[in-house]
Design brief:
Length: 1021
């Protein structure tokens, strides 16, 4: 019976094993779908022969050949399996998303992918094209290049609810399946509209200016009719510019479609079977080049490319981003400006109104950055809901250009949509700048770095304390709360709310004015709350916020509360302040003022905003006039150059000084001008030319020409014909002639020129002493060698003789008193044994050795030196002293300077190249364009063409165009980055320079700082 049971048990085991084997066989080869393994919301690619859970975290476990991108690269996965491609082509492979199942049509499989075309497009493996598979999941990206233009379906309209694009291919030219982004669609984070912490009541919003637009003088020159030859020459140049744009556009289309910027060198190195990423996403990953290029495509007549780009733009989902924060300034000028410019340039056709819808979608997100106590924007906006819901404060140190260059885009959006809240947001920023302009160290100019936090500094707080009626309470606040640095509070009246009620701007109408034109009172309630940590050196304005409940809500003011010194407090202050300090009793670094990087577009937007508003808001004109007057005194200078051209450069000024208690600078600012020239500052010539025309300052036209000519001249100072990013110039003497003086230039190149002769004299004396010493040492060495040859070392070979050597058979090294040489003398010697068995001690205590058979020494110690003991040495000759390092002869002043000029590629008048790179910047060509349109002088076209040809030659790569590391010599290596402003600005300005003058006429259009055209059609409210 037991045997029967045993046999039955074995049979059960065998049957179970067969069943398990059959189960796995069927599971892997007979089309089992493992439907139970499809988790809700997880995107999976699967087929009837093998399951590919692309969304599964353990993907690499079942497919060891899966190639994952390196850290920092796109998360697109590549499945190198030819069988997958075959299954896909046969229709077996599907993209499955359980969460989207209910939205699939009844007569079609769940989002089945169509087979690839017979001639698949050659593309990069890591490319992605945005698709809107379903509202709310529009960030799903399929790795593929776009359809050919000829094959792309044309729609009659472009709306924000456009149909989803159907991917045409998921395989590359090798037959490999190009992977699907393994994103869990259910877990994709989307921005959500939040209740504002500091809302502005509707009745308090600053509306668009009312009134009839002013009659503004013409900006453009009245051009004569061109000849046939002139037109043909111009058309040839336009054709060449378009070829460059075509080459750029199709490289981006193939290698970086839907991403922010192409990386040409990465694209060049791509080969079939690799996963090298040929793009980078610095601006949200929404496709900066795509949107930045829209109006350029239209202006150049590339209509099919424009339609394709608009279709792709409709698929952008601004509610989710590739980054944790949104760079507000760059997003505003590139995306918001690009969408509005594209809509305007099309003539505001109804079928392109989807561009406005997209602009509104983006603007609603960006409006969250203004939700701060003083309505100053947070420049790196943390958009994710868990961060967006928290209270925010603007940074204590921000670039002035970024916070002051949002006005054109939000104003134009307000004009198109009629929503005054967009204008209100930037008008409040403008009012702060207007109030602050006369309170800086250089009235009229703004600090390049400013404090926008709205938190009082110690000096400001002291002034506020004086104005307080409750002195004891204010004194307690001043002593117990730490804060930050500031300028003045000439418009502040203080009241402390003892209960600590935090009234936001919506409740402060009777206390403070944040740009409210109807408010008369300037009083406001001071509240102290914990600030977010700010780091001026970080690219993120807001450090990560604590997740505790206490960190999520601002601390309430309590005059009696004790606050740790490590927890900075914020006492509200209504105004902008210098981030550098400069207050009585403080010592800080100088404040920097300039028109280049960190400042540029804030000044640029002053006359442009005045134009866009039809001259109805005079504050912009007043601010421009004040800033230009200060720039003429402090920033503009004439360099000493060895050329006949008349040039003027815009430099930076570093000012020291204090702000008096009434909020004004205490006299003339003490400081120095840097003498720097920069590519970013090259826009100034065009700005001054436009201002001269619209405000009637004809004398400023000559200044505009000199400013623009300076950048044209700088292009000609390098071996590449391209201007580097930054360089320092030789300023003309404060007194005397500015005629070329090579001696003066040489002296500036060599600050030690007057010490060179003394250095040479010192070196010659030291060199003579060194040679004398070496000769003496050599003579001494030869003398010793001769002595050794005459008196060789005594080595007795007779029986019983004492052998003089460096070391005995045993013992510890000791010092021989007579010779000074080391001797190995045993510490313990048996009586009568060893070389010292018969040693004696002389009168002076020196031991002598008497070997058996008698002493070899006299009764008294001889004063003659002992025989020389030579140690073993390698080689046959005596070792000679090792050669010592000898300082080379210092160069003469002329030798030093000529070497520096040669090695650093310095042109006469240039002192140094501080930043040698060229990153496809447009500012020089921008001013050349403005000077041609305002003067009509054809010489500007000739100059612009030379500049463009040099740029194209220097930056051209096998794929598209790239920035270079060094533009000063014969051309440095490419750094592999193509900025989106290459198509938005640089190519657009050179095109408009040779286009018919009525295209984008400056009398009808205003160009934002990214060269996006806004129509001047505002007629008031």
């Amino acid at each position: 019976m037991a045997q029967v049971r045993l046999r039955r048990g074995r049979s059960y085991v065998v049957a179970a094993a067969v069943f398990v084997a059959l189960f796995f066989f069927l599971a892997t080869n007979q089309g089992w779908h493992y439907a139970s393994d499809k988790k809700l919301g997880r995107l999976q690619a699967y087929d009837n022969s093998f399951r590919h859970g692309v969304g599964d975290p353990s993907l690499e476990d079942w497919n060891p050949n899966l190639k994952k991108p390196h850290e920092g690269e796109s998360d697109t996965l590549v499945i190198p399996a030819s069988k997958d491609a075959q299954d896909y082509q046969s229709g077996k492979l599907e993209v499955y998303d359980e969460d989207l199942k209910d939205h699939a049509s009844a007569d079609s499989p769940l989002h089945a992918l169509e087979p690839p075309p017979t001639a698949p497009i050659q593309g990069d493996v890591g490319l992605t094209t945005p698709t809107n598979s379903h509202p709310g999941h529009s960030s799903l990206k399929i790795a593929q290049p776009p359809l050919p233009i000829a094959a792309r379906p044309q729609s009659n309209s472009h709306s924000s609810a456009s149909a989803a694009a159907t991917p045409s291919s998921l395989v590359d030219d090798t037959g490999r399946l190009i992977g699907i982004k393994p994103s869990n669609l259910a877990n994709i984070v989307h921005w959500k509209s939040m209740r504002e912490h500091y809302p502005v009541p509707t009745q308090s919003r600053i509306p668009l200016p009312k009134g009839t637009p002013k009659t503004i003088p013409k900006i453009q020159h009245k051009f004569a009719v061109e000849s046939t030859q002139q037109k043909q020459d111009r058309q040839l140049k336009l054709d060449e510019i378009k070829r460059v744009m075509n080459r750029t556009w199709y490289a981006y289309r193939e290698h970086a479609w839907g991403h922010d910027e192409i990386m040409p060198l990465q694209a060049t190195q791509n080969v079939p079977g690799t996963t090298r990423i040929a793009y980078r996403d610095r601006f949200g990953g929404w496709g900066a080049t795509l949107v930045d290029s829209l109006d350029t495509l239209w202006i150049m007549g590339m209509m099919e490319e424009f339609e394709e780009a608009v279709n792709a733009t409709m698929d952008i989902d601004f509610t989710t981003s590739s980054g944790d924060d949104i760079p507000v300034f760059e997003t505003t000028i590139r995306y918001l400006g690009g969408l509005l410019g594209a809509y305007d340039i099309t003539g505001q056709q109804k079928k392109y109104h989807g561009l406005v819808d997209k602009a509104v979608e983006l603007a609603e997100i960006l409006m969250g950055c203004f939700d701060t106590p003083n309505r100053m924007p947070v420049l790196f906006y943390q958009w994710k809901p868990e961060q967006a819901v928290l209270p925010k404060t603007a940074a204590t140190s921000v670039a002035m250009s970024e916070i002051g260059s949002l006005s054109l885009e939000f104003t134009r959006l307000a004009q198109i949509t009629g929503e005054h809240k967009y204008y209100d947001a930037v008008a409040r920023v403008t009012q702060y700048f207007s109030e602050w302009q006369n309170r800086t160290l250089i009235p009229g100019l703004f600090d390049n770095q400013l404090d926008a936090s709205g938190c009082a500094t110690p000096w400001t707080l002291a002034q506020m304390t004086k104005a307080s009626k409750n002195k004891e309470e204010e004194e307690e606040t001043r002593k117990e709360f730490s804060s930050f640095g500031d300028d003045s509070v000439d418009n502040v009246v203080v009241h402390v709310d003892a209960e600590g009620d935090d009234d936001g701007p919506d409740q402060r109408k009777d206390h403070s004015s944040f740009g409210d034109a109807d408010s008369e009172s300037k009083d406001y309630v001071i509240h102290v709350r914990k600030r977010q940590s700010q780091n001026s050196g970080d690219t993120n304005d807001n450090a990560p916020t604590k997740t505790s409940e206490q960190a999520q809500e601002p601390a309430r003011a309590n005059p009696n509360a004790k606050v740790a010194s490590s927890s900075p407090a914020c006492v509200k202050y209504n105004g902008l302040q210098s981030s550098q300090g400069h207050h009585p009793g403080t010592i800080r670094s100088p404040a920097e003022y300039g028109l280049g990087g960190g400042a540029d577009s804030t000044y640029e937007y002053l006359p442009k905003q005045w134009l866009l508003l039809g001259g109805t808001e005079d504050s912009y004109r007043e601010m421009y006039e004040k800033s230009l007057a200060a720039a003429k005194e402090y920033l503009f200078f004439q360099p000493m150059i060895n050329d006949s051209v008349d040039v003027t450069f815009a430099s930076n000024y570093f000012a020291n000084g204090n702000i008096t208690e009434d909020g004004t600078a205490d006299g003339h600012a003490d400081g120095y001008r840097s003498g720097m020239g920069s590519h970013l500052a090259c826009f100034v010539g065009g700005m001054v030319a436009m201002g001269a025309r619209i405000y009637g300052y004809e004398d400023d036209m000559k200044l505009a020409e000199r400013l623009t000519e300076s950048c044209v001249w700088a292009y000609g100072t390098t071996g590449t014909g391209v201007m580097p990013e930054e360089f320092r110039l030789l300023e003309c003497p404060a007194k005397g002639s500015c005629a070329w003086n090579q001696t003066y230039w040489y002296h500036e190149l060599d600050p030690s020129w007057d010490k060179r002769e003394q250095q040479i004299e010192t070196w010659e004396i030291e060199e003579e002493m060194r040679r004398t010493k070496e000769a003496e040492e050599e003579a001494l060495r030869l003398e010793k060698e001769a002595e050794d040859a005459e008196f060789p070392s005594f080595q007795s070979t007779q029986a019983g003789a004492v052998v003089k050597s460096d070391r005995t058979d045993a013992g510890t090294p000791k010092r021989d008193v007579v010779s000074g040489k080391r001797q190995d003398i045993p510490d313990v010697v048996p009586n009568g044994i060893g070389p010292l068995a018969n040693s004696k001690t002389t009168d002076n205590g020196i031991a002598t050795d008497d070997p058996p058979g008698g002493s070899i020494l006299p009764s008294k110690v001889s004063t003659a030196p002992p025989p020389r003991i030579d140690k073993p040495r390698l080689g046959t000759g005596r070792s000679r002293p090792q050669p010592q390092f000898t300082m080379p002869r210092p160069p003469t002043h002329e030798q030093f300077v000529e070497s520096k000029i040669r090695n650093e590629h310095l042109y006469p008048g240039v002192l140094s190249h501080n930043r040698k790179e060229y990153i496809l910047r447009p500012e020089a060509l921008e001013s050349v364009f403005y000077l041609y349109r305002t003067t009509g002088n054809p010489a500007w076209r000739e100059k612009g063409w030379r500049m463009f040809k040099s740029i194209e030659k220097l930056t051209r790569t096998e794929v598209a165009y790239s920035s270079v590391y060094d533009a000063t010599g014969n051309g440095g290596s490419h750094n592999g980055v193509m900025e989106s402003f290459w198509t938005a600005e640089t190519l657009k300005y050179i095109w408009l320079l040779f286009e018919s003058e009525d295209v984008v006429s400056l009398d009808e259009w205003v160009l934002n700082t990214e060269a996006h055209p806004f129509r001047r059609d505002w007629v008031g409210t």
